Structure formats: structure tokens, C-alpha cells
Amino acid sequence: MRATLDRTGRLLSLVSLLAAFISAVALAIAARRYVQSHLDACAVMKCLGQTQAAQLKLSLFEFLLIGLTAALLGGLLGALRDLLVAGLPQPGLIPWLSGAAAGLVLLLGFALPPLLGLARVPPLRILRRDAGGQPVSALLV
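RE: above sequence
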């Protein structure tokens, strides 16, 4: 019985790692699509005087706001466990904080490289659409 429980625990750990990996890939794809759709707007803002640091701060703020909203919604859904038929453990602050921290680390780790590319878009992109695209190194990340 003990060996079965140990194998079950390892299987659940593997499943949670796989879920984190899939969510990280989804974050990277979403961040890349976000960057592609905002290249022109960032080039216009650079022409109007916005600095690279200000653009990066704005983009990071947007992504962190989305991440914190998702963490709060996840915590609220976890608090509604009485509506579910399955018996779940009591929700607490520590599991919520660890889940929120893991989500924010994944968000920053996989969304930050494309956002750095967004901050480096040149103002010349307004005139030449091929300027300021993602370099090959950013695609490899």
C-alpha cells in the first residue's frame, strides 16, 4: 500500500510539472503574439518620446496585473470548494501563495524575453515595416 501511495505521489508530481510546462509554453506564445501586435504602437510611442525603460515598465505592469488577477480569481474559485462534489482539502493562504508565486515566476520567466524585444523596437518601424522585428535569438529563447 505504501509503495502504491509513493508511486501515486510521483505521478501527481509529474502531472503538475507537465501542467506547468504546458502553461509556460502557452505564456510564451501569448507574449510573442502580444509583442507582434504592439510593435507599431511602441514605435509610435518612441517617436513621441517614450523611453525604452518606460515602455518596458508599462508592458510588465500589464502582464503582472493580468497575472495577479488570475491568481485572485483562482483563489476565489478555490474558496468555492463547497459547490464541488469532490472532497477537497481546506483552502488556505499558504497553498494560494505558493500557486500564485509559481504562476508569477512562470509569467515573468516566459513573458519577459519577448517584452524586452518590444522595448527595443526602433522608431524607424513606422516607416519600414521590416525594421524592429524579433531577432533569431529572441525566437530561440
